[in-house]
Specification:
The complex is a heterodimer of chains A (about 160) and B (about 110). With about 160 residues, chain A is an all-alpha fold. Chain A is built from five helices and no strands. Chain B has three helices and no strands. Chain B is elongated, with a radius of gyration of 18 Å. The chains are: A mainly alpha (about 160), B mainly alpha (about 110). Chains A and B meet through α3 and α4 of A and α1 and α3 of B.
Chain lengths: ~160, ~110
């Protein structure tokens, strides 16, 4: 696997005199972009293209996380509209955390995809993620909370 | 001559297209729930923009899946295209949907 940890053109040009200097705003933006590139290079400038099957698998994993997030958001919305525990706003204890967890998973799935893609392009092992643990604990807590609210609502008649 | 592993024998690209299409369906389904919530709670000012965004996202995902299929319906060793911007957009729409849904849930 060939390593091409790339520097952008602007980074490669750093230190040389520019015969056509740009306006100050563009230059600052360019320098900022170059600095960001050095810290975290663009994915397509890092390493080499992995086996497309792995790229596809990573893409499907991201989509699965996105759908899980959407499912939690949808479930939370349904909980807010349908559940009636007879305990004031108790249904919000189920609905709001589910929706928030869905949003968190939607965003975290993207970062997970990027980390995995970067590792694959660099030929490094994929790291472990706590995302699955967060989801498992979140769903378990929501289930427990729902069960407790159902029991309380039933006992209250 | 193409070797036995050069073509996408496992159907990876096809499975990926199907995953995009499932995601599109999920986006549209959540849009329907958001819209229903807006109608029930009388908060259409929040529900309509969020639902419209989700429907647009679903349509974009579906169109994107067709593009992926065209791009990847080719020998497997020629490299895959990175779709980072589409992933960022999908994550952002999910977050916006979550924010709108919290608003709807709190007004029930």
């Amino acid at each position: 696997m060939t390593e091409v940890v790339g520097a952008s053109d602007s980074t490669a040009m750093a230190g040389r005199s520019d015969p056509h200097p740009r306006p100050a705003g563009t230059s600052t933006r360019g320098r900022l972009k170059a600095a960001l590139q050095q810290i975290r290079p663009r994915l397509d400038e890092v390493g080499s293209e992995p086996d497309p099957r792995f790229t596809f698998a990573n893409e499907r994993t991201f989509l699965a996380w996105a759908r899980t997030g959407l499912a939690l958001i949808g479930g939370g919305l349904v909980a807010a509209q349908v559940l009636h525990f007879g305990l004031g706003g108790a249904r919000l204890l189920v609905a709001v955390p589910a929706i928030v967890l869905g949003g968190v998973i939607g965003i975290a799935g993207y970062f997970r995809w990027e980390v995995n893609e970067r590792a694959m392009r660099l030929g490094k092992p994929l790291g472990y993620s706590s995302l699955a643990r967060i989801l498992a604990v979140g769903v378990a807590v929501l289930a427990l909370l729902s069960a407790v609210l159902v029991v309380i609502a039933t006992l209250n008649g | 001559m193409r070797g036995p592993l050069e073509w996408d024998e496992g159907g990876a690209s096809e499975r990926t297209v199907l995953a995009w299409e499932r995601s599109a369906i999920a986006s549209v389904a959540v849009a329907a729930l958001v819209l229903r919530g807006g109608i029930v709670d009388g908060l259409l000012g929040v529900a309509i923009p969020v639902a419209a965004l989700l429907v647009l996202c679903g349509a974009a995902e579906w169109l994107f899946s067709l593009r992926i299929y065209q791009e990847h319906d080719r020998p497997i060793g020629r490299g895959a295209v990175l779709h980072g911007r589409a992933f960022v957009a999908l994550s952002a729409v999910t977050l916006i949907a979550a924010a709108g849904s919290v608003a709807l849930a709190l007004t029930v």
